[in-house]
């Protein structure tokens, strides 16, 4: 199990021009290691839908990888997303599932203990799936896995669905409710998207 | 009996308005349009599992510069409430929606019981302050054009309620 802030530091060190979508507790801690115009805070945009948003974004911007920090509780809120991703997920989508087995943001209530997220992804057809048939499922148990695999993941075709068991022993910053519309305006500006 | 709109003509309208993707979950009212989108090489059809997914994927597509169209039933509109709030109304993302109005025909004919999906549809759209047009019959596909313009002007979601089943 990886300390989450160590994971964030490791990914931030390897990240270059990818979009990074965060939700729930990741929106609180990722900004401690990254202040990038292509960071997108999905907090309060829709329960369980961060990877759906990321899938749409990646489909619209095939030239750029889109990384989504997704929570395991959020995935349970929209399990069908796995099936949709397995069918339509573009090659440039990377979903990093933070497996802490709790609804951490709202008090740490436990998730159903026997859920196997890798098995769910397999059952959904993610391995060899996605729009181009190059979908990959992985499980990273240690920071070495991040250092070894992330550079490849950021260059090889996906979509990638990667389960990462984490815990957190660092204090969470307070929730910031910045203007939702402005977040989208800023993201589109960073992507060079004109109005239409 | 009033004829429904032509799916082929609707495809022409959708293409002329520059839509790039159609997110559709099949329903009785729109199944012929769903099929026509799938047959069109210039439109990318995505079939999510639930309408909340559709809304969030569409928001991501729009944020990335594409122009998605949501094709859902009114029951799916109700299912997608939190996503519509969070990915459309709140962040001012101009999602365009064609919403199949399940229950319209029965209500029009006075058949009881009235389908609650019919009853709550307009009330729900009004509660969310989502402007909508009603497409009732073979003519009137310009409702889609008006809905598109409204979304562009307001930067908010807008809808067309499709009262009758699409025909070929």
Produce the secondary structure layout:
The complex is a heterodimer of chains A (196) and B (168).
Chain A (H helix, E strand, L loop, with lengths): L1 E2 H11 L4 E4 L2 H5 L9 E3 L8 H11 L5 E6 H6 L2 H9 L4 E7 L2 E2 L5 E2 L6 H8 L11 E4 L3 H11 L6 E8 L12 H12 L5
Parallel strand pairs in A: 1-9, 2-3, 2-4, 4-5, 5-9, 8-9
Antiparallel strand pairs in A: 6-7
Helix pairs in contact in A: 1-7
Chain B lengths: L6 H10 L4 E4 L6 H9 L4 E3 L4 H13 L4 E6 H6 L1 H9 L6 E5 L3 H6 L6 H12 L4 E4 L6 H13 L3 E5 L6
Parallel strand pairs in B: 1-2, 1-3, 3-4, 4-6, 5-6
Helix pairs in contact in B: 1-2, 3-5
CATH superfamily of chain B: Thiamin diphosphate (ThDP)-binding fold, Pyr/PP domains
Approximately how much helix is present in the residues of chain A?
25-40%
Shape of chain A: globular
Name of the CATH class of chain B: Alpha Beta
Biggest β-sheet strands, sense, barrel of chain A: 7 strands, parallel
Q: Give the beta-strand count of chain A.
A: 9
Arrangement of strands in the largest sheet of chain B: 2-1-3-4-6-5
Distance between the termini of chain B: 16 Å
Q: Give the rounded overall mean pLDDT of chain A.
A: 96
Describe the structure.
The complex is a heterodimer of chains A (196) and B (168). Chain A is an alpha/beta fold. Helix content of chain A is 37%, strand content 19%. In chain A, the strands form 2 sheets. In chain A, strands 1, 2, 3, 4, 5, 8 and 9 form a 7-stranded parallel β-sheet that branches. In chain A, strands 6-7 form a two-stranded antiparallel sheet. In chain A, strand 8 (136-139), helix 7 and strand 9 form a beta-alpha-beta unit. In chain A, helix 1 (4-14) packs parallel to helix 7 (143-153). The termini of chain A are far apart. With 168 residues, chain B is of the alpha/beta class. Chain B has a single domain (7-162), classed as 3-Layer(aba) Sandwich (Rossmann fold), CATH 3.40.50.970. Helix content of chain B is 46%, strand content 16%. Chain B is built from 8 helices and 6 strands. Chain B has helices spanning 7-16, 31-39, 51-63, 74-79, 81-89, 104-109, 116-127, 142-154, and strands at 21-24, 44-46, 68-73, 96-100, 132-135, 158-162. A 6-stranded parallel β-sheet of chain B has the order 2-1-3-4-6-5, sandwiched between helices. In chain B, strand 1 (21-24), helix 2 (31-39) and strand 2 form a beta-alpha-beta unit. The two termini of chain B are 16 Å apart.
